[in-house]
Write a structure and sequence with these properties.
Distance between the termini: 27 Å
Shape: globular
Structural class: mainly alpha
CATH class: Mainly Alpha
CATH superfamily: MFS general substrate transporter like domains
Number of helices: 16
Oligomer: single chain
CATH architecture: Up-down Bundle
Helix content: over 70%
Strand content: under 5%
Order of helices and strands: HHHHHHHHHHHHHHHH
Radius of gyration: 21 Å
Length: 416
């Protein structure tokens, strides 16, 4: 059993190491090294969302119907790694968009597939996913942190080397995936099936269930919140360099490392998920996540590198609850609420709503609002009011969720 867990830990570590190597620092490469326009950056960051609209669900269907999940996972990582390695050779923003979109088409579905592999392997070994998955998944966060620190401390925060690091790690993981325990398709029989079932579209029936449809809707709204902090967090801290009294501060010099406190916080909250889910149920845990987003944004609004440094650090700590109590708990909720035959497809739908529609809407709408209402003629951004706007958005989502989402995971599990 321990060997199985170690193998899944290695998978999760490298999975998120790839993401951490470039996602937080790509803005520095875009603006600093390449000197490209800020107006074009929003669409570059939205490539993750665009890819997540269709690829996780499509790949989930393929894995449920036709090919072992670990094999599809390995193929995607190898192709994604080769694409990452090609990014430094791109010398104009339009081509960069298409290449990184291709990289995201290969990478984004692997997040859901990694969860599906872990759930499949744990279940086949009769291990409780709620108990055993969070301690495995926490190593993904550690991998993300390790990549952020590596890129920052080696002076590659603004260099093309971040893409080489991500690319080579992806290829290594792709090869490693073929050694993982087999996760064969669970939905292969075509006997007495409708054409919807034969095409592997069963998971979309989940939208007919009020409970699941509402859950996916709020997943999309919270996915938008996650996109906001990913897109603007490092740029916000780096912008303090334009204020003379802060230009030599640790926040400016080590902005990526400061933000990595968010991922360090994740490691604690991931491990706390089993306790909170069993004690409070999914609704209360999700509500904790939403109010944590309010605090995350509100503390950023009033923080600064001097007297307000504690607010920036506390915001990063709160992020752990905001992210984990939504993303990880939500993934476990989907796994427990759906048939194992559509496990990969259902995880793909969750990814589609959060990192797909949620991310695209979040990046597009926030970009429009920030450009129109919170950016001065010289390009300076009113970060205080930007973060307050985001906090108000998260508060509205939390209130609506509290009113309309009636499902109690804790109670239904006890009755089953």
């Amino acid at each position: 059993m321990n060997n199985i867990k170690i193998r899944l830990i290695i998978m999760n570590f490298i999975q998120f190491f790839i993401w951490g190597a470039w996602m937080i620092t790509i803005a520095n490469y875009w603006f600093g090294t390449r000197g490209w326009e800020s107006a074009e950056f929003g669409i570059i960051f939205s490539t993750m969302g665009i890819a997540s609209i269709f690829m996780p669900t499509l790949c989930g269907i393929i894995a449920d119907r036709w090919i072992n999940t670990e094999r599809l996972y390995g193929i995607l990582h190898i192709l994604g790694g080769l694409t990452f390695i090609s990014l430094p050779f791109v010398d104009n923003p339009t081509t960069f968009f298409w290449v990184i979109l291709l990289a995201m088409i290969f990478y984004m579905p692997t997040i859901a597939l990694a969860n599906s592999i872990a759930y499949s392997v744990l279940n086949s070994n009769k291990l409780d996913t709620i108990k055993h998955f969070p301690p495995i998944r926490v190593w993904g966060t550690i991998g993300f942190i390790a990549a952020m620190w590596l890129v920052n401390l080696t002076g590659n925060k603004s260099s093309e080397n971040q893409f080489y690091i991500a690319g080579f790690a992806a290829i290594v993981l792709g090869v490693y995936a073929f050694t993982l325990p087999k996760s064969p398709p669970q939905n292969t029989s075509s006997k007495n099936k409708t054409w919807v079932q034969m095409l592997g579209l069963d998971a979309f029936k989940l939208f007919k269930d009020y409970k699941m449809a509402l859950f996916f809707l709020f997943s999309m709204l919270l996915g938008a919140a996650l996109q906001l902090t990913n897109a603007y967090g490092d740029v916000y801290l780096d912008d303090f360099k334009n204020i003379p009294q802060y230009q030599d501060s640790l926040v400016v010099k080590y902005s990526t490392i400061i933000l990595s406190i968010s991922q360090m916080s994740e490691t604690l909250f991931i491990l706390a998920i089993p306790f909170f889910l069993r004690r409070f149920g999914i609704k209360k845990v999700m509500l904790m996540s939403m109010f944590a987003w309010v605090l995350r944004f509100g503390l950023f609004a009033y923080g600064n590198p001097a007297g307000g440094l504690w607010m920036i650090i506390l915001s990063c700590i709160v992020y752990g609850m905001a992210f984990d109590f939504f993303n990880i708990s939500g993934s476990l909720f989907v796994d427990k609420s759906t048939d194992h035959k559509i496990r990969s497809s259902a995880q793909g739908l969750f990814m589609m709503m959060t990192n797909g529609f949620g991310a695209v809407l979040g990046s597009w709408i926030s970009g429009v609002l920030i450009g129109k209402y919170f950016t001065a003629a010289d390009g300076a951004k009113d970060w205080h009011n930007i973060w307050l706007m985001f906090a108000a958005y998260a508060l509205v989502v939390a209130i609506l969720f509290a009113i309309f989402f009636k499902y109690d995971y804790k109670q239904e599990e006890a009755e089953s």
